[in-house]
Amino acid sequence: MKILSFLTLSCFLLFNCTSPKKKASSGVIEITDGWVRPTKAGKMSAAYFKLKNETATTDTLLRISSDVTSTTQIHESFETDDGLMGMREQKFVALPKGETIAFKQGGLHVMIIQPDLDLVEGDSVTLTLQFSSSKDLEISLPIKASGN
Amino acid sequence: MKQLLILFFPLVVLINCQSGPEVIDDLSDTSFKLLNQDSVTVTFPDDYQGKYIVMGFIYTNCPDICPLITQNLIKIQRELGYPEDVQFLGVTFDPERDTPSVLADYKEVFKLDENFDFLTGTSETISAFMDSVRVRSQVSLSTITSEGKEIYFMNHSDKIMVLDPKSRVIIEYGGSMPQVPNLIIEDFQSLK
Ligand SMILES: [Cu+2]
To answer: CATH assignment of B21-177, given 3.40.30.10, 3.90.1230.10, 1.20.1380.10, 3.30.460.10?
Structure first.
């Protein structure tokens, strides 16, 4: 048993040493279809977008900050066991490689809590996204009524 | 007793044949003093008798599910062609924070029409009102902002209902579902 472990470990080390280091930016995390809900200063808004992980590895979205508020959170809307709708905080969001994760109404959303100013249609909001592997991403999203 | 039943039975059948949709609930005997976004007192449902009411339930600190409900109400109003005899209502189950002026801001952000009111009231009245329309809500998570202020969020029923001009609930759906506007518009077409 010990030998087997040793062999496995050696293999593992060998593999790690010889495998070429992946290029950090062979792909990127791409953000599309973003928008932010209008609201008044001091109230509540949400941001939505799609995230596509086109890097070579699974990444994790860890944190989001914004230029319009000092308090943002990642939430998910969900239905409770007794049939009520609610929101729960998500401390991080896994981004499997090659997959698109959608922040959309009724699901994942970025809470923009008590913005410092009115969020008016036509203006934009800057968000900074922090990941476990990829570099920080700064995006500018238009403020608009959801448009349905 | 049997005779009474026999007498009563044809009457029930007769009423059922004449009336259109099934009545889910009759609110005509209830009365609630509420406030709209302009701080005008509204007596529900008496003030709306003679009109249809399309009503959703929201709190304004909810930026995801509740706007879906509000957008559905807006869509129904638009696709019905802004009818005069249909009153649209959004009633808050969070009266502590959703004062008339907060509701006025909310109405302004959504750019709403004349026949669209948001209602609040005292905590006691809202609580009794929500019981009568079978809407439940409870504080769920709370969070501290970076300025040290505590804010809470709520779990809540997700519902849009329609009352007929006699204040009877005749239609009820999940409020945030995307297919709800079409369902209600179809229901209206079969009513009129
Ligand atoms: Cu949320």
So the answer is: 3.40.30.10
